[in-house]
Amino acid sequence: YLSTQLQKYDTYKTQNKKTILLVTHELSLTGAPIALFNFANRLKLLGYLPVIISPIDGQLTELFLNNGIPVILFPEIYTTNIINKIEPLFDLIIVNTIITYPIIKKLNNKSKPVIWWIHESSNVYRVQLT
């Protein structure tokens, strides 16, 4: 499945624009994923090529695809080294929830810009991450 998605990405990338990987914890119709959906559409309007990666499918997948934004579903994103393998394909990586902190840890000390764009309430910050 991942191979098919990356082939679609190769076609997408031929547009010679900056690609941005947007990492989310799920594609449900909830707060942070919806904010990411709106952000991805804005990036596309500005001339960037957003690509979504998520471990969990949801109702937003179809909305992303209908808007011409590729979606990579990869359930093992936290337990494999896939993020480090695909990281060189992108100009920028944006991670949008605190749940995705393992991705931030895997991308630590990379020369590529990685932005952690968090959408949780302040209650989440009281939880200790390991």
Mean pLDDT: 84
- Count of alpha and pi helical runs: 5
Instruction: Give, in spatial order, the strands making up the sheet with the most strands.
Output: 3-2-1-4-5
Sheet-strand content, in percent, reads 15-25%
Radius of gyration: 14 Å
Low-confidence stretches: none
The main sheet comes to: 5 strands, parallel
Kindly name the structural category. alpha/beta
Count of DSSP strands: 5
Helix and strand sequence: HEHEHEHEHE
> Roughly how much helix do the residues carry, as a percent range?
25-40%
The backbone outline, from C-alpha atoms, is: globular
Span from first to last CA? 30 Å
Topology:
Elements: H1 2-13, E1 19-23, H2 31-45, E2 49-54, H3 59-66, E3 71-73, H4 82-86, E4 92-95, H5 101-106, E5 114-116
Parallel strand pairs: 1-2, 1-4, 2-3, 4-5
List keywords for this structure.
five-stranded parallel beta sheet; 130 residues; single chain
Summarize the entry for a quick read:
With 130 residues, the protein is α/β, with parallel strands linked by helices.
Q: How would you explain this protein's 3D organization?
A:
It is a single chain. The protein starts with a helix and ends in a 14-residue tail after the last strand. The chain is built from five helices and five strands. Strands 3-2-1-4-5 form a five-stranded parallel sheet, with helices on both faces. It is α/β, with parallel strands linked by helices and 130 residues long. Helices cover 35% and strands 16% of the residues.
